[in-house]
Request: fold
Amino acid sequence: MHHHLDAYAYTNRLRSLPPQQKLIFALLVLAIALITHPATQGVIFIWLSVWTVGYARTPVRVYGSVLVVMLIFLLTSIPALVLEIVPMEQRALIQANSFGGLVVGNWYGFISQSGLVQAIEVGMRSIACTSCLLFILFTIPFAELLSILRQCRIPTVLIDLLLLMYRFIFLFLDVLTQLQLAQRARGGYRTRQRWMHSTGLLVSQLMVRSLQYYHRFSLALASRGFNGNFQVYFNPSYRYSKRYAIESLVGCAGLVILDFRV
Amino acid sequence: MLLPLLEFQTVSYTYPGASHPAIQNLSLAIFAEQKIVILGHNGCGKSTLLLLADGLYRCSSGVISWKEEPLRYHAPILNQWRQRIGLAFQDPEQQLVAATVAEDISYGLCNSSLSRAEVAQRLHQTLHDFSLQDLADRPLHHLSLGQKRRVALAGVMALQPELLLLDEPTAYLDRLQTHHLLAELDRIHASGTTIVMATHDLDLAYAWADWVIVLHEGQLVLSEPAQQVFAQVDVLNQLQLGMPTLLECWNALPATWRDRHSPPKTISELRSYWLNHLPR
Reply:
């Protein structure tokens, strides 16, 4: 049995809340995060982390790990914003905008003040938005997200595709794990050369196995009467929480007021 | 005269690009309310036969009929056909198509022309029958193999087919899971469903089936009551299928002990027989 990230969406303490309530809340905060100042965005990050870790009881370690992975992607884009290079003759022009730099031949590389401000703005906005997405990831099961999309009259073909992709991600991961284990058991990743060879083999085999799987999956769909429309029955029972609704509304209003004061 | 439920008349099937047919001139009748096992080595055509029976493969020649009505490969007819004949695949992972257990079981129901209320009623009944209520909202990739197999079976049985086809249903299952599955199949059979199971497990076939079909290289070798099949030791040995362990033990007993008794079906029958005949 596998314990994937989405397991927390099915076992968290906010599971009984209607997914619509959680999704609207997260999207509202996301909208606020996109238009507010970095200080407000920092508060959004802390507040949403309290919801995800404190209220939903997602383990801090898991939440932190996913956040770190996402922040690594963010950090890779920061140097492009902060570092600038100009020809030596233009050095005097950017003196006021420079935090100090390095002369390399006929070029001057420096840390830009405006770039740094921009990096902080982008960084804070990304962190705030990431916390909103993580709240959705850890508290709303994918099946419930799809049901909301159905209610919103999103084209069926798009929802069917999302569902199939969701099923295939885990099957793909299982095949990947099995193949990798089989390769490791036979010394597949012992040296750099073997690593390259094994990785190539893994990718090609994944392709072959996926096609084989697709064929069998098509047969299974046909055997269960697939008629071009992926329909399932969905009738959940949720408990609406006044306490969480009040906190989310008051919190959002507070964020907007805070942003006006900053 | 009793009409066959499902009938194959000189059916052949060759996979695209293959030089030999996977099924060759096979004629076979399956009668209602039986527990049937298809025996044979890997690659003998067991799975192909089941896929042909469900209308998933189109036979190269011959006719497949349901209660004497030949199968026509048109979408509406095939949909009706697949509601009468349910197929559970060897790997349940291939059969589970939705995100959660309840959604997956409801998938086949939603594809039939049932009302929403009827879908809900049948879904709840199936969850109850297969003791899956606690797993109803669980995502499928969180289940163990035994649970997945139960969900796959439940998804097929929710459509209340008259004939249930099972491809190696006990593959990869441990002893306890196999025991639970067989108990489930006995319950399904008792409710009036005919069951056809493809397997290469002779012990399972001997203990469970009342009719046995033996295939070899895509051809029908035997289709007889289980007792008659397992009495043909020479044929089974010639096909290198061997004998069920229980029957081997039974045959090792002195001939005078066995004369007036039919072979035991279970280990407890053998034990009680043994205890009754031991010199006191």
